[in-house]
């Protein structure tokens, strides 16, 4: 006969599969803690607030993990990461960036990573709207000591039970909980964290700290025995104790000379600080804790000897050995458990993070040079250049000959590998080292141009954002009114068609793009004039810019409408009042970050600015060199750092690298601010 508890837990979720072997005994219930939580896990989490070394390690690792940027991608048929397409609008991405009304994405990630680093477990509870339960709306981090898995002998896991602070038990289905674990070799249902392996050493460190504290409060005295001849009566003992406490108890009475009567004698039994060796003990405890976390001293800011090379190596080591494994664990949970909750809407999508490991410029250059030299040998041996490029991992490039006045590179000299690489990438062939003053002049011209470009862009963005405040207010009112009407009609489906009036926004953005394009064209003409070259500024493509404005406005309006609909779903209950729901939606929209707005409007403006420059440059006299510059990006991605300061042979190759504004391979997409700077003066 099946037990009532097993029957109840078996109903939590219908299992999709059977476990091949029993993981749970027949007699065991779910965890044996029916009326309490995991006290040991709570003790492990408390160590962060009581042991400085634990706090330093967990804070450093969880903070570094939380700051890494994430993206949602559509998988490519080739299976290659570089062929994936970014997805910028999706409910799963919105939830990951803003899990719930009270947590930012970074705070959420730092919170559950703390649990993982302390206990070896992290729990996300998925919240849904009861009227449309199939759609996840929020993620909440939950203390792992309050979550009990409900084992199943036949199906491995039946569900979970959350035990509240006052003992309340909340059953949760399998699709309502996502768990990340560091595997426990003895318990497949629970995780194991580093703290669990060093609890005894942590206790020793904590107790030694307490002893030190007591030493300074009252010198850790008395540390001996008072011997008396014969026996004392109760009255004599009480009188002696009262006098002793009056004269020697407390900080102010420390180190007073004691007077003993009636033949009493003091026998010293205390240990000194040197005897206890607490300094050595605490230092050893720190080493043991760091060993459990596999974290070196420099990761906590303890640097005995450092220079720039070792500092850079330390950053790379920390990111590669500590941050990346934590990111991979979260990535697995997102793609295996979170995205499938969205059904067909998430098919062929995957989350991925931006690589936090700093690029090793020297190693990258050595690899490229090695590939170029290998390609050189294969081409000389008679193999087809395109096949050679594919074989060694270099891009295919069409050879069009050297620029006017330049000598073709000879494959036989020692620079041939670098020259071949430059030709394959569309850059200028390696040339003799320029004189310092020539390179200084190029640097000055690039820096001067980028400063002017940055100023023009920032002024245009500030003006557009100021004008957009009025548009945002109008959009918010439209959406709140539509939500109120949907609640009055008791029609949830109306939320799917929320849309503000975008006519004024299209006009505003289109005018801003046209004005910036015209200003950017004139700015490039001024750059040429400063170098003694006459260039006519190109007229803006008003129809094309208007189409861009229509797309960007539609994306922004759809994003705001989605935020309004999602919040309305969250607060819309069976007895919801229209004004209450509308008020909640209005407050939510008012509190949204302007990050998306800045990114989208900034991307559109940069596109317009780049169009003005490139259209003018297309009909201008050919400069001596086209230089890619990413200096206006405060936080360049690895690809932009790679292309920064590269020199192209012609307009076509430069335009191919920057086809619609931003650098084509930039991981930041709309946030990229790279451009092309032409240099006409002969260097």
UniProtKB/TrEMBL annotation:
- Which protein is depicted? HK97 family phage portal protein
Task: Quote the InterPro entries the UniProt record gives.
Answer: Phage/GTA_portal
Tell me any Pfam family this protein matches. Phage_portal
């Amino acid at each position: 006969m099946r037990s009532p508890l097993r029957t109840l837990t078996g109903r939590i979720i219908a299992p999709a599969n059977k476990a091949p072997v029993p993981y749970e005994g027949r007699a065991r219930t779910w965890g044996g803690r029916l009326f309490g939580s995991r006290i040991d896990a709570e003790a492990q989490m408390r160590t962060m607030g009581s042991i400085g070394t634990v706090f330093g390690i967990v804070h450093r690792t969880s903070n570094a993990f939380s700051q890494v940027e994430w993206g949602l991608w559509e998988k490519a048929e080739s299976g290659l990461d570089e062929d994936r397409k970014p997805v910028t609008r999706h409910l799963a991405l919105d939830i990951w960036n803003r899990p719930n009304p009270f947590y930012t994405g970074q705070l959420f990630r730092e919170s559950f990573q703390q649990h993982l680093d302390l206990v070896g477990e992290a729990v996300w509870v998925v919240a849904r709207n009861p009227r449309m339960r199939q759609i996840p709306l929020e993620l909440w981090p939950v203390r792992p000591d309050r979550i009990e898995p409900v084992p199943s002998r036949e199906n491995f896991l039946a569900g979970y039970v959350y035990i509240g602070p006052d003992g309340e038990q909340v059953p949760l289905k399998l699709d309502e909980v996502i768990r990340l674990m560091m595997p426990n070799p003895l318990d497949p249902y629970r995780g194991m964290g580093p703290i669990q392996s060093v609890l005894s050493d942590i206790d020793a460190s904590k107790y030694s700290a307490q002893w030190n504290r007591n030493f300074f409060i009252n010198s850790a005295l008395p540390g001996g025995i008072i011997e008396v001849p014969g026996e004392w009566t109760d009255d004599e003992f009480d009188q002696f104790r009262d006098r002793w406490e009056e004269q020697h108890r407390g900080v102010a009475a420390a180190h007073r000379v004691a007077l003993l009567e009636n033949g009493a004698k003091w026998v010293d039994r205390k240990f000194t600080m040197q005897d206890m060796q607490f300094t050595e003990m605490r230092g050893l405890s720190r080493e043991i804790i760091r060993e459990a976390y596999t974290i070196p001293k420099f990761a906590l800011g303890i640097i005995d000897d450092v220079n720039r090379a070792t500092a850079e190596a330390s950053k790379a080591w920390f990111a590669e050995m500590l941050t990346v494994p934590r990111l991979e664990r979260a990535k697995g949970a997102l793609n295996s458990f979170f995205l499938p909750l969205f059904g067909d809407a998430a098919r062929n999508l995957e989350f991925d993070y931006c690589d936090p490991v700093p690029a090793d410029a020297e190693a990258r250059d050595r690899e490229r040079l090695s590939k170029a030299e290998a390609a050189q040998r294969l081409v000389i041996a008679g193999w087809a250049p395109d096949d050679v490029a594919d074989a060694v991992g270099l891009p295919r490039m069409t050879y069009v000959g050297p620029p006017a006045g330049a000598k073709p590179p000879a494959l036989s000299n020692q620079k041939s590998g670098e020259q071949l690489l430059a030709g394959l990438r569309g850059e200028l062939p390696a040339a003799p080292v320029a004189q310092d003053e020539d390179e200084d002049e190029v640097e000055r011209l690039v820096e001067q141009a980028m400063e002017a470009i940055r100023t023009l862009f920032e002024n245009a963005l500030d003006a557009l954002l100021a004008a957009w405040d009025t548009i945002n207010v109008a959009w918010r009112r439209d959406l709140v009114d539509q939500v109120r009407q949907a609640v009055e009609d008791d029609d949830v489906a109306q939320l799917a068609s929320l849309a503000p009036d975008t006519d004024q926004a299209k006009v505003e953005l289109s005018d801003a793009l046209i004005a910036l394009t015209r200003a950017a064209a004139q700015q490039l003409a001024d750059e040429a004039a400063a170098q003694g070259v006459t260039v006519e500024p190109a007229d803006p493509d008003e129809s094309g810019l208007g189409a861009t404005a229509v797309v960007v406005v539609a994306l922004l309006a759809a994003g705001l409408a989605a935020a309004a609909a999602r919040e309305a779903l969250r607060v819309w209950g069976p007895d919801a009042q229209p004004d209450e729901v509308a008020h909640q939606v209005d407050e939510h929209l008012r509190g949204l970050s302007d990050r998306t707005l800045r990114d989208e409007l900034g991307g559109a403006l940069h596109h317009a600015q780049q169009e003005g420059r490139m259209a003018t440059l297309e009909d201008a006299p050919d400069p001596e060199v086209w230089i890619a510059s990413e200096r206006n990006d405060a936080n360049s991605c690895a690809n932009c750092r790679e292309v920064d300061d590269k020199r192209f042979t012609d307009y076509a190759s430069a335009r191919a690298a920057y086809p619609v504004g931003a650098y084509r391979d930039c991981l930041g997409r709309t946030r990229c601010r790279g451009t092309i700077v032409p240099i006409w003066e002969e260097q």
